[in-house]
Amino acid sequence: MRWSQSWILSVLILFTFAAQAVAEVKLGSDQLVAQAFEPLRGKRVGLLTNPSGINQAGISTIRRLLDAPEVNLVALFGAEHGLDGKAPAGKEVANYTDSETGLPVFSLYGPGPTREPTPKMLREIDILVYDLQDTGARSYTFISSMGLAMNACGQAGVAFMVLDRPNPLGGIRIEGPLFNPSFRSMVGQWPIPYVYGMTCGELARMINGSGMIEHPCLLYVVPMQGWERNMVWQDTGLPWRPTSPLVPHAHSPLYQVAMGMVGEIGGVDLGFGTKYPFELVGASWLQSESVSQRLNAYALPGVNFHPIKTTVGRGPNKGRVLPAIKVEVVDAARAPLTPINLYVIEAIRLSQGRDMFKVQNQAGKKWGLFDKVNGTDATRRDMERGRGVPQIVNAWQQGVDRFRKERTPYLIY
């Protein structure tokens, strides 16, 4: 089954929904069940998901679609980290047949490299359903896979459905540098700020309707019920399932945004392999007490810094004890998450005279991935010149304000 070209630019929001006095958040997948899977009847269905694709009761969307007599699920798709969510960051995953369901599993992070569905993958399906939990950061590759899959579906005449999910950082926070197309990659695909304050369904509408992809698709968004823009994940009452190995907890997206850029510089330990990924920075040379004091002296709202000792959780130095700084987000709504990266780098330079960029330049480091994660090389160059963090953050504001207006037509909640 294929749709005529006259439908390709259509964007359909399925199902009306009413605000509730007491919000009980029901996911797009729950709403699809409530509608007896009506939009999928008579269609061959593909599903792009991983273990984070669970409903309000913790049941996987794979299982719900398999068990629904109204649904003909014929293929599964996996993004980065694979269908099982266990592959390390950046590791390519091959296509295979799922032993539990007998269905083909097509990798959108596979050898080649394959980063979007091929015509062969789409040949036997009529609609591709997306149910992946992202983190609210542009550099998390699931939203790149979503938009690239939408483009491929648009070109092939296959419909695309997003089962909407909360943005773990909420729908209000927008911060960080805007995207420079010269740095397009899987960790930065769309012209949006680093933290963009939209649900995946809202972002899909924007990608499809604002010219971000060459081939807009027939897009269905199944909205949530009861979600409000000021909610971070902990406010939703929903179960959290790790989205990838380094995002194990409901609060992990906060710390991924706050410390991920520090990790891309290299030469530090971010707690990977422990219970606290992205929640600390450690190094043998780190003067954790003096740097923590300087960080706390910034009086950043909603965040505290503590000197600790950490044990390296993986790699050649596994088991080594290092001085470290523990980041503690005490008020997620107020903490300036993306700027924390820059304050940590600046505090290390000012407190102990160690310029992390200069050290890595002397070691011959290439900055490709750091700049791609930032979506620009301006952040790095400003830091290398010693520009103050408030000046850098203020320079983001014009782009943030412009994006806040541009996203308005695509908001659902």
What would you note in describing this structure?
The protein is an alpha/beta fold. An eight-stranded mixed beta sheet has the order 1-8-7-6-2-3-5-4, with helices on both faces. Strands 9-11-10 form a three-stranded antiparallel beta sheet. Helix 2 links the parallel strand 2 and strand 3. The two termini are 32 Å apart. The N terminus is likely disordered.
> What is CATH's topology name of the largest domain?
Rossmann fold
Radius of gyration from the alpha-carbon trace, in angstroms: 21 Å
Number of domains: 2
The best one-word shape is globular
Poorly predicted regions: 1-22
Largest sheet: 8 strands, mixed
Query: What's the architecture of the largest domain in CATH terms?
Result: 3-Layer(aba) Sandwich
Strand order of the largest sheet: 1-8-7-6-2-3-5-4
Portion in helices: 25-40%
Number of beta-strand segments:
11
